[in-house]
Amino acid sequence: MTEASGAAATIYHNPRCSKSREALAILREAGADVTVIEYLKTPPSRDTLAALLARGGIAPRDALRRDAPTVSDDAAALDLMARDPASIERPLVETDKGVRLARPPELVRELL
Fold first, then answer.
1. 17 is annotated as an active-site residue
2. What is the full per-residue pLDDT of the chain (112 aa) written as tens digits?
3. Catalytic one among 17, 36, 58, 76?
4. Left (φ > 0), alpha (ψ -120 to 50) or beta: where does 27 sit?
5. Measured torsion, CA atoms of residues 56, 37, 18, 50, in degrees rounded to the nearest 10
């Protein structure tokens, strides 16, 4: 087992996304205790998104998918993601060590 064995992790996951599946596999292979939130079925609130992104040092506009509509500022980005969770870039992963937008999926290792 790795030193991550038993570490708690939350992944905002889209099972149809290969990068999200890869990040989830890395977490599970490391022995993390993973909570999977399918964000299209259970979208995070605007406040939750703001807190997650702030904790990870991620500008909300940087957490938008590339094909999302253009927004004028970070507040508009949060509004868009809260209204249309499909506009959120994935996967977003949180552990006790922080929050990462795991693109590429290997970035999740920084949280283990």
1. yes
2. 344 557 899 999 999 999 999 999 999 999 999 999 999 999 999 999 999 999 999 999 999 999 999 999 999 999 999 999 999 999 999 999 999 999 999 999 999 9
3. 17
4. alpha
5. -30
Which residues on adjacent β-strands are paired with residue 10?
Answer: 35, 94
CA dihedral sign of residues 73, 80, 82, 87: negative
For residue 68 the two structure tokens come to: 């999302």
Exposed e or buried b for every residue in 88-110, given b needs 16+ CB within 10 A? Answer: bbbbbbbbeeebbbbbebeebee
> Cα–Cα distance between 109 and 26 in angstroms, integer?
8
| pTM > 0.85: yes or no | yes
Termini Cα distance of the chain: 12
